[in-house]
Specification:
By secondary structure, the chain is mainly alpha-helical. It has a 3-stranded antiparallel β-sheet with strand order 1-2-3, covered by helices on one side. β1 and β2 form a beta hairpin. It is elongated, with a radius of gyration of 31 Å. The protein starts with a strand and ends in a 5-residue tail after the last helix. This is Tyrosine-type recombinase/integrase. Keywords: DNA integration, DNA recombination, DNA-binding. It holds the Pfam family Phage_integrase. It comes from Thioclava electrotropha.
Amino acid sequence: MNITKRGDVWHLRRRVPKGYASVDPRREVVISLRTGSETLAREKAPVLWAEQVEVWEAMLDGDTEDAEARFAAAKRFAKARGYRFLDARKVARLPVQELLARIDLVASDEMRDPLGADSLLGGAELPLITVSRALELFWGLARDKTLGKSADQVRRWRYPHIKAVQNFIAVVGDKPLDDLTRDDFLDFRDWWAERMASERLTANSANKDLTHLSAVLKRVNRDKRLGLELPLEDLGFRQGKAARRPSFSDAWVRDRLLAPGALDGLEPQARAILLVMVNTGLRPSEIAALRPEEIRLDDPIPHLLLQPIGRVLKTQNAERVMPLHEVSLAAMRAFPDGFSRYRESSATLSATVNTYLRDAGLLESERHSLYSLRHAFEDRMLAAEIDERIRRDIMGHALGRERYGEGGRLATIAALLEPIAF
């Protein structure tokens, strides 16, 4: 670092890099190090030079007509100069000493840049971000929500956010976020109340929409540091007791679903997934997403080893081992590498199976579905008096207390499940 002394104060003196010539016309920059100590000056010089580079980077970002980029650049510029960005109204209310310090810095020879007033005196205008634009920004801001997810999991995560925003825009319009009022959100709530009454929808459907809309708007407001007060509180609907999906009876599974030829018309991979569910109780999506390395058919005890390979498991308890018996083992032997048809697109699986079961008269009631096999398996374990800790481990459920030891080992679980397998 080239430092020189002017009077009693040391200064940093360097040429302006060519890459920043478009935002700083000076040939060289001189920055006061605010000390008379050469040792301290040499320590401070690299830090202040890094801050100056950050200022130039912010100026480059701000040299654009894009309001969002210029607003972000103004904030970066202020931070690099050791100040917090405030809008013009808040700047005007600052204590006189701080206000004058900001004005002096903007007017100083050390700055002479177009972002000075925007960043330090609040001249940068809040960017016009509409509700639809907020959704576009949300995907980038919420990248942490998709880490480790498969393409199918990302698609299923994105869909309810898209639906919620589209519903909101259909009701109140694609307004800028800073124009949204409490009435807009109440209008959206009223729209859902009418749908719940006319279409017999549950409060859960409305609350999911409100939750996903809120997630988008709050994340953008926070991460873009817009400082808006979004009136999103107390909009949800009271939910009644959730209806539990009924189980298939043992007789129905044995005599109807597993009757010779009953499932012959079902798409082969979907049929195999159903049969794997019968004796494992695994979620349909868990079976559909199985990778070849999770399928252990040649081991002394054939089993599935559910792991977060190429996807994120539903919960940390979903990582588990599952022995295979009878029809479930036979189904997996037919597809030893897994189910490629549904691995990256499991959304159609349940619809395919449920439609077939309904058309073939294989649903025990109108409320039954493919997922009822999971409940049926759990009921069989309960009837067999299998320990609760092992049942929860098998189903991938939380224990509700700290787990000690390894739980049921594969051989133990296999022996417990064999008598109740079809």
